[in-house]
Automatic annotation (TrEMBL):
Pfam families: ATP-cone, Zn_ribbon_NrdR. Binds 1 zinc ion. Its cofactor is Zn(2+). The keyword Transmembrane does not apply. Belongs to the NrdR family. PANTHER family: TRANSCRIPTIONAL REPRESSOR NRDR. GO terms for biological process: negative regulation of DNA-templated transcription. InterPro entries: ATP-cone_dom (IPR005144), NrdR-like_N (IPR055173), RNR_NrdR-like (IPR003796). It comes from Leucobacter viscericola. Negatively regulates transcription of bacterial ribonucleotide reductase nrd genes and operons by binding to NrdR-boxes. A zinc finger (unnamed) spans 3-34. This is Transcriptional repressor NrdR. One of its GO terms (molecular function) is ATP binding.
């Protein structure tokens, strides 16, 4: 690790702690050359392979953006979307795999979205589970009815 002050190519770790609920490691370092201290944050990188073959880093913002479209007109807040994106990242990281297809990320979103809002879940699932017919929708609705989520009740019904 290069010192950000004098560019010496080495540094000594003084202290290590977990950060972001265990998703990263915060290290306090000291340069043996100039003696100055600095902090680094280390995270395991997650990458996503797009349909086009392009590889890019995982982005919570992209998860939120995609889910936001499915949640249009629904009682879902930005805070709800941020929590969902964090849950998706945690579930993806917990697999121990560092590289995913974009479709796998979409499928990882589904259980969390189902708990958040069932209508948004159906909208999103119709894309990521490739619904082709009304029977696909009927099957998904039937599954929702037989196994309702333990999430908050739909507050739009009166």
């Amino acid at each position: 690790m290069y010192c950000p002050f004098c560019r010496h190519p080495d540094s000594r770790v003084i202290d290590s702690r977990t950060a972001d609920d265990g998703l990263s490691i915060r290290r306090r370092r000291q340069c043996p050359e100039c003696g100055r201290r600095f902090t680094t944050t280390e995270t395991a990188s997650l990458t996503v392979i797009k349909r086009s073959g392009v590889v890019e880093p995982f982005s919570r913002e992209k998860v939120m953006s995609g889910v936001r479209k499915a949640c249009q007109g629904r009682p879902v807040t930005e805070a709800d979307l941020a929590i969902l994106a964090q849950q998706v990242e945690e579930s993806v990281r917990s697999t121990g795999i560092a590289q995913f297809d974009a479709n796998e990320i979409g499928l990882a979103i589904l259980p969390h979205l189902r708990d958040l809002d069932q209508v948004a879940f159906l909208r999103f699932a119709s894309v990521y589970q490739a619904f082709d017919t009304l029977a696909d929708f009927e099957s998904a609705i039937s599954e929702l009815r037989t196994h309702p989520s333990a999430a908050r009740p739909d507050s739009t019904k009166e």
